[in-house]
Amino acid sequence: MTNMLIPIILAGGKGERFWPLSRRQYPKQFLSLDGSGVSLLQATAERLLPASGGWDKIWVITNSAIASTIRQQLPHLPEANLLIEPEGKDTAPALAWSTLEAVKRYGKDAILGFFPADHAITEIEAFEQTLQSATQLAADREAIVTLGIQPDRPAIGYGYIEQGEKVKEYQGLTAYRVNRFTEKPDQETAIKFLATHRYSWNSGMFIFRAGVVLKELETYAPEILQPLQDKGKNAYGELAKQSIDYALMEKTKLAYVIPADFGWDDVGDWNALSRLHPAQDSNVELATHIGQDTNNSIIYSSNGDDLVVTIGLEDVVIVRDREITLIVKKDRTQDIKKVLKKLQNRPDLEQFL
Question: Is 62 within 8 Å of 12 (Cβ atoms)?
Answer without folding.
Answer: yes
